[in-house]
Amino acid sequence: MDLLNTLVDKGLRRETPTREEALAVLATSDDDLLDVVAAAGKVRRHWFGRRVKLNYLVNLKSGLCPEDCSYCSQRLGSTAGILKYTWLKPDQASEAAAAGLAGGAKRVCLVASGRGPTDRDVDRVSDTIKAIKDRHEDVEVCACLGLLSDGQAERLRAAGADAYNHNLNTSEATYGDITTTHTYADRVDTVHKAHAAGLSACSGLIAGMGERDEDLVDVVFALRELDPDSVPVNFLIPFEGTPLAKEWNLTPQRCVRILAMVRFVCPDVEVRIAGGREVHLRSLQPLALHLANSIFLGDYLTSEGQAGKADLEMIADAGFEVEGADEVTLPEHRAAAGPGGCGSHAAAGGCGSEGEPAGGGVCGTAEASAPASAEPRTDLVAVRRRGAGTDLAPNA
Ligand code: SF4
């Protein structure tokens, strides 16, 4: 297929595809699925080999958020039966992180619900970063605390944070349909702050909220412009008790096509399969490893993932290998730029939601181009009841 040959060539040269080419990937048929995977897989292997980076989520503060992000189980008014707790103490967070690191994770993502941190919260997270790095010198720490005020990114960087996550989530045009308490521009501003402070930017999206193909392409092109080092791709987990509870739009094949499109547009960036991997990719998870070079190990923020051991077995069975702590994730031209030195900046988003969209909402459903045939799989959605914030051992 000429389209795929062109996209491979561009991906190997780090050249941006056209919007039409990105849309064409999303429009390919199931008959072409393996050809799409083979093409995007060449780009993935060129920049990242067969390595899979493992990341581990620690939810420092769960639920009780005053913001209204419709996809999120922690939102204002959510009746999802999730764990609710306030800030974990540094030693509790360090204990939770240790389980993920023992399972093979090389990055710990410290996440807190809320609009953004107070300066006191930044102190707490700084203490937590120290507690983790005292025990695990080589660990990468990414903070995900919501919208940042002036000076907070610099303080996190000084405390030892390596990265900051804030997702754009969806296109600028549809952002107001999923959240009213902050704006797309607010999210962009926080990613700029992270970049400016020398933090490695992590910013991604959520698919499956009823958006059009054009919206998915818009947000991925906005991310390319923003130039984060890592792009988490979430697939909406339609939690009961949130506005988007009925939005079951995704098939495993569509998820694969979305990941392929992201790989073609962001060829040399760490593409991470985030929340919804098990729920939506299901038995196609190993195929998706040919596109993404990074996943979360074990559980998500408020929902359970498959057993950490099953993640490791899947990686091995599919012929991939877990990236070691001594291996550099990013290609040389990016890694040489150092944390945060990953190019131009343009937008970002993120707050307490990395790895796990969780609510419901009504955004662009009338124009949704996702297949209507996707069946609700509520049987696969399990609220997290173990790990951080509980007395039970974490899944790692
Ligand atoms: S995504 Fe973040 S800000 Fe939005 S409701 Fe969830 S925890 Fe709150």
The gross shape turns out to be: globular
Which regions are unreliable across 5 or more consecutive residues at pLDDT < 50?
340-355, 357-372
β-sheet strand percentage? 5-15%
**Overall pLDDT score:** 91
Coarse structural class: alpha/beta
**Tally of DSSP helical segments:** 14
Bound molecules: iron/sulfur cluster
Q: How large, in whole angstroms, is the Cα Rg?
A: 19 Å
Q: Which CATH architecture is right?
A: Alpha-Beta Barrel
Q: Would you give the CATH topology? A: TIM Barrel
Number of domains: 1
Q: Report the biggest beta sheet as strand number plus sense, adding barrel if it closes.
A: 10 strands, parallel
Order of helices and strands: HHHEHEHEHEHHEEHEHEHHEHEH
Ends distance: 41 Å
Q: What share of residues is helical? A: 25-40%
CATH class descriptor name: Alpha Beta
Please name the fourth-level CATH homologous superfamily: Aldolase class I
Description:
Strands 1, 2, 3, 4, 5, 6, 7, 8, 9 and 10 form a 10-stranded parallel β-sheet that branches. Helix 6 (152-158) links the parallel strand 3 (140-144) and strand 4 (163-165). The relative contact order is 0.20. The termini are far apart. This protein has a single domain (2-380), classed as TIM Barrel (Alpha-Beta Barrel), CATH 3.20.20.70. The longest helix has 17 residues, at 119-135. With 396 residues, the protein is α/β, with parallel strands linked by helices. Helix 4 (90-102) packs across helix 5. Mean pLDDT is 91; it is low at 340-355 and 357-372. The chain is built from 14 helices and 10 strands. The radius of gyration is 19 Å and the shape is globular. The structure holds iron/sulfur cluster. Iron/sulfur cluster is lined by residues 65, 67, 69, 72, 74-75, 113, 115, 146, 351-353.
